[in-house]
Amino acid sequence: MSAKTTLGIVAPKIRFREPQIEMAHGAGGKASRRLVEGLFAPILFGDSSSPLGDSAHLEINGARMAVTTDSFVVKPLQFPGGSIGELAINGTVNDLAVSGAVPQAIVVTLILESGLRTEILQAEIEAMARAAQAARVRIAGGDTKVVEHGKADGMYITTTGLGAPLAGIEIDPRSVRAGDKVLLSGPIGDHGITILLARGELDMEGDLRSDTRAVYPLVNAVLQAAGPGVRWMRDPTRGGVATSLNELARDCGLGVILFEDSVPVHDAVRGACELLGLDPLHIANEGQFLAVVAPELADAALKALQEAPGGEEARLIGEIREQPAGSVLVTTLYGGSRIVDMLVGDPLPRIC
Amino acid sequence: MSAKTTLGIVAPKIRFREPQIEMAHGAGGKASRRLVEGLFAPILFGDSSSPLGDSAHLEINGARMAVTTDSFVVKPLQFPGGSIGELAINGTVNDLAVSGAVPQAIVVTLILESGLRTEILQAEIEAMARAAQAARVRIAGGDTKVVEHGKADGMYITTTGLGAPLAGIEIDPRSVRAGDKVLLSGPIGDHGITILLARGELDMEGDLRSDTRAVYPLVNAVLQAAGPGVRWMRDPTRGGVATSLNELARDCGLGVILFEDSVPVHDAVRGACELLGLDPLHIANEGQFLAVVAPELADAALKALQEAPGGEEARLIGEIREQPAGSVLVTTLYGGSRIVDMLVGDPLPRIC
């Protein structure tokens, strides 16, 4: 998940001064970043100035490995195109994949609500098993807690993934250079808008499905084509593409130029966003990723991505420039441009 | 945590037929085992017949490593002797330690309730940092989600621990033999009864503190003294000593004889249990462990344990015999004896 542990190397130190936790602190945008950088990081990580990505890479028993962890609290538990169990596997294997690691094993904890129907639980256990099999990861163990009725919306799932880092691949925002190209694996916003519609709180219907899937095969296509030319990757989940690219801009100290007309967006997502006053660039995705690739290898990487199953709608959506340093500038075919910030507030709570 | 993923090799296959989840399914006793063995294991692990312990040991990138995961939902968040943050670190490093691995790194997720006061959150982040430092593990990353007010009792914490398995140490119930001795690191029931009293629902007071601590130094003392003579270890958390030993009896197919008068129990725990009709053997511990050691090395292991700081109250509390196969028989000095089962029901919900 983007934002979660990313420690900035550009921005000045901040302190968390808010008196209490609000929904926005879990939205993956600016408030989440304030909480992580202003409260968690100073206590847990000291003065570390390394940007941490989607996964931590560390050494255990003499071997390098990647680890990532996420809790899933999506509401409702089931939605068109997926469910919490599938999301909990895919979200974690994707965090490993975009860190340049081959997903290998997952451990799972369940916090269940007393009174949860067994068939609902069983459906999610089966969804996890199917997703793990599709992603070729082994579920290696787990734990279950039960809380009183009303205390967990059915269930919360936490998954931790372990992976083997690919040799020669170094995913690090500090290796990004002006001139690098930004690739996107497919259309954005499907997951966030699907969840919003599935809640039935809006008088809106749409033929949309969550894009949840394991992206490792697509990531692998890019890595095979561009290898060490792949500087950085991320799955733009909470906070969307705009938040992930803002984090990149901050962490590399360069500007990200985004060609808005090149960003694929389904009509149903665009329509819902217009009605709600949201920007598709801020809407969460669960089956897409961004890749920054050295310019001489970008065409080959894009071609490999588009030729891989499920990558047909991949596009080159932007490039890295010296300016505006630390920011994301969105440009349109007609010459318009605007700075787009990280997600502020939480217009779509609990989408993963 | 005991019970969580232990797949029996003795018991016949069971199916989970209960229509909904109850608090007892999270209590670590019989109901938890039915849920894991009857529903989770067949779907997630297939027909595996290997008993899984507190941690899974697997190979990533050519190196063996240990991984374990647990969610913590203890209520209240703070209690005499500890708090949820400290528990979340200690519980996980202890699961690694009793599997014969040196704890090395932890990742953490927080599910926070909207409206949670920042000072309460900060206190738990600090408690985690202190506990991690004391246990010499690095907190390598994390994730935060926020749910609506009323949905998470302040916070739930999930920790996943990674460790390096010690060479030459094989913790496996199948290696236990008749004649082996059972050691216990210290007095039982302090944690469970402390939580119960801290809730203030009972008209009882007691000068008790949770025993939460990292047991690795004590485990290491045993391993240094008895090495490969250490057959099996476990931290008797949910379900207590009786549940852990019943799992051992089932998994090794032998009988566990427990010398009741040798089991250290503080007076306050004994008194509360008598009033409540509970058996101290079923009460949760968070800073103790059981070890089964080959008979010729048991004295040396016990001596090493008692000489290590915090191990002074360790005792030899039982032995393994051929009969009663698959069960735990409690004997007293006066010649009485009784079979003690796993925990049934959930007399002490949400103690970790």
Which helices and strands appear, and what pairs or packs with what?
The structure is a homodimer of 352-residue chains.
Chain A: H1 30-44, E1 56-60, E2 63-72, E3 78-79, E4 82-83, H2 84-97, E5 101-113, H3 118-134, E6 138-147, E7 155-165, E8 181-184, H4 190-198, H5 216-226, E9 230-234, H6 240-252, E10 255-259, H7 267-276, E11 290-293, H8 295-307, E12 315-321, E13 328-331, E14 337-339
Parallel strand pairs in A: 5-6, 10-13
Antiparallel strand pairs in A: 1-2, 2-7, 3-4, 5-7, 8-11, 8-12, 9-11, 10-12, 13-14
Helix pairs in contact in A: 2-3, 5-8
In summary, what is this structure?
By secondary structure, chain A is an alpha+beta fold.
Biggest sheet architecture of chain A:
7 strands, mixed
Please give the count of helices of chain A. 8
Number-wise, the strands of chain A total 14
Strand fraction of chain A equals 15-25%
Cα gyration radius of chain A (Å): 19 Å
| SSE order of chain A, one letter for each helix or strand | HEEEEHEHEEEHHEHEHEHEEE
The CA-CA distance between the termini of chain A, in Å, is 10 Å
Overall shape of chain A: it is globular
**Residue-averaged pLDDT of chain A:** 93
Structural overview:
Two copies of one chain form a homodimer. In chain A, strands 9-11-8-12-10-13-14 form a seven-stranded mixed beta sheet. Chain A has a five-stranded mixed beta sheet with strand order 1-2-7-5-6, covered by helices on one side. Chain A is an alpha+beta fold and 352 residues long. In chain A, helix 5 (216-226) packs antiparallel against helix 8 (295-307). In chain A, a hairpin with a 2-residue loop joins strand 3 and strand 4 (82-83). The longest helix of chain A has 17 residues, at 118-134. In chain A, 29% of the residues lie in helices and 24% in strands. The first copy, chain A, has helices at residues 30-44, 84-97, 118-134, 190-198, 216-226, 240-252, 267-276, 295-307; strands spanning 56-60, 63-72, 78-79, 82-83, 101-113, 138-147, 155-165, 181-184, 230-234, 255-259, 290-293, 315-321, 328-331, 337-339. The radius of gyration of chain A is 19 Å and the shape is globular. Mean pLDDT of chain A is 93; it is low at 1-11. The N and C termini of chain A lie close together (10 Å). The interface between A and B is large, with 84 and 85 residues.
